Amino acid sequence: MLKRFAIAAAILGSLPAVALAHGPSRQKVEESVEINAPAAKVWAVVGNFQDMSWVPAVAKTEGKGGNKPATSQASNDGATRTLTLKNGGVIEEMLDDYDAKDMTYSYEITKVDVKVLPVNDYSSHITVTADGDNKSTLEWKGAFYRGYMNNDPPPNLNDEASKKAVEDLYKSTLAAVKAKIEGGK
């Protein structure tokens, strides 16, 4: 009986160490903006996977496959794009799902240097929703892991830094889209 108690105590005593060694948690960011314009007008700006000119940080988009989702990451049969950022960084992405009728699409980053965007295993979803005839909501959701996948990340690659980078990107981009559409530019 004493031997069982000692084994149980040893197992229970090791649980806190196991809990601390779990690694990163998946982070989620969701931002939206109400735009005083019909949903079709907003979709015309953001709905083409091959055109990311609506993102202020993007200098150039090059891609192939139009708006055709890939059947798998390994298949290389669907839409992909390479974003060249104004700061010189490069991000490669693949379209996972596209529905023009419902004004929504999903994509994932297939390659990024964490110095450019401090994330791993990033996936995203963009949706435009009508709110009457002349108002709509543009929503951008993302899920990802921090830039450093092991324990004890440096401050610039931890959960908070990764989440802040994505939040800042989403907020500044949505504000720019709103200004562009409502300003008539």
Brief rundown of the structure:
The protein has helices at residues 2-20, 39-46, 159-183, and strands spanning 27-35, 58-64, 80-85, 90-99, 104-112, 119-130, 136-146. It has 185 residues and is α+β, with helices and mostly antiparallel strands.
Could you say which overall geometry the principal axes of the C-alpha atoms support? globular
| Biggest sheet, spatial arrangement of strands | 1-7-6-5-4-3-2
Largest sheet: 7 strands, antiparallel
Count the E strands: 7
Mean of residue pLDDT values: 90
What would you call the structural class?
Answer: alpha+beta
3D architecture notes:
The protein is built from 3 helices and 7 strands; from the N terminus they run H-E-H-E-E-E-E-E-E-H. Strand 5 (104-112) and strand 6 form a beta hairpin. It is 28% helix and 35% strand. By secondary structure, it is of the alpha+beta class. A 7-stranded antiparallel beta sheet has the order 1-7-6-5-4-3-2. It has helices at residues 2-20, 39-46, 159-183; strands spanning 27-35, 58-64, 80-85, 90-99, 104-112, 119-130, 136-146.
Entry keywords:
185 residues; alpha+beta; 7-stranded antiparallel beta sheet; 3 helices; 28% helix; 35% strand; globular
